[in-house]
Amino acid sequence: TLKLHDVNQTSFQSALDNVRNLVGSPLAGIDDQEMVDTRPITNALNDLISLDKETGKRGNPVYGNLPRKFNIAVSGSRDDFAHTHINDIGLQPCANAETGEMGFNVVLGGYMSTKRVAESVDMDMWIPATVDAAICLSEAILRIFRDEGSRNNRQKARLMWLVEEKGVETFKAEVVAEMDSYKRKGIPTHYPSQKQSTEPFERRDLLGVHAQPTEGLFRVGVHVPAGRISVDEARAIASLADSYSDGEIRLTVEQNVILPNVKAEKLDALLAEPALNNDSRLGVQPGNIIGNMVSCTGAQFCPLGLIETKAPAERIMKKVDARVEVPKQLRIHWTGCPNSCGQAQAADIGIMGGPAKKLNPETGKMVAVPGCQIFVGGTIGESGHLSLEPYKKGIPIEDEILVEELVEIIVSQFNGKLKH
Ligand code: HEM
Ligand code: SF4
Hints:
By secondary structure, the protein is an alpha+beta fold. It has three domains: 178 residues, Sulfite Reductase Hemoprotein, domain 1 (2-Layer Sandwich); 69 residues, Alpha-Beta Plaits, CATH 3.30.70.3340; 125 residues, Sulfite Reductase Hemoprotein, domain 1 (2-Layer Sandwich). The protein is built from eight helices and 17 strands. It has a five-stranded mixed beta sheet with strand order 11-13-14-15-16, covered by helices on one side. Helix 2 crosses helix 4. The termini are far apart. The structure holds protoporphyrin IX containing FE (HEM) and iron/sulfur cluster. Iron/sulfur cluster (SF4) binds next to loops. Its cofactor is siroheme.
């Protein structure tokens, strides 16, 4: 049997004060709007971080003990599927106005936590979209962060705090000096961030069936409710991939699956597969309310969770879907506590575990019950902004109450229409 490491997968360094899993574009290489194929870059960054240069094996002490955890996102198109604005390093594709060369504007310091939620700041730097440049930049930032980031207070240890302590300009100057000191060829460090095209652009849909640039090939986005799959469902997806997409499966940050390179003549057969129809949880047309829902691990398995998330999300979203329809895809995110792994602040509607009170009819007293606060209006993509203040607080996590609240928000804020 193949081991994970033989197929370039690893669970090493996926937690603790490490660089977490790299995020790239789920449409890399199959996209007519692609600006950068993120795959070689994310693979090389993954090797930089998790491969021990001396032994050639996974598990790398060089970046194994950072001041705090660290995320890198490499975006491949104007959709920003990788969510650069909430990662410690975000690479946003943009051509150089002077040379025409494709490259990245660099943004820094985005993160979420209980104490603070921060959007990235512009580093005012452009680098070419090459593996060498992305490695050089990341190495320099990680070296400075590792050696100079604060290790005194874990609440103030993420990269943003170091950037703020030094000031963005000084931080940038130090990164540039570090990069230049490596004396690698062909990596210009003097360009400020470049202007992004102002042509109108609409962020694209990852679910459902979409033609690829190559005639006769399609990508098929499959919805996985709340990002949870059983062993049987995982095997079913693997079989679909073997039969229809040359064994390839792509994962999206919305916790869904894409089967790429499906041949036109096989599309109907794929769409008729039992694994995607009838009472299967998986499907290709989940609709606008359910399709882009996201859920964190939640209290069932996470020691920090204040509420359960995945099971209630799946159940409650179905009930909401039965009550209301919306003209556009809605992004509804569930997160079990203010650490916001489910990124409630980036969602159209974000549900975050928190305290609530409810009247006990027998005693006539208010009692503490599991509850949530709801964020509304976070945006993603090119001009993405987080919604930092809750729209509502202290709502008990009970199906009827929450369904009513969500239906009301969808109707009043997102042009929802009640179904009859
Ligand atoms: C694959 C995606 C993710 C999974 C499965 C996940 C899961 C978890 C779990 C299980 C914990 C609790 C760890 C413990 O036992 O202490 C945790 C902690 C935490 N997560 Fe996530 N998470 C994910 C993504 C994210 C993202 C995207 C963010 C930020 C937006 C985030 C922010 C945090 C924070 C702030 C904590 C508290 C502990 C710490 O800061 O290290 N997580 N996560
Ligand atoms: S947001 Fe969810 S997964 Fe993250 S720490 Fe809280 S309960 Fe756990």
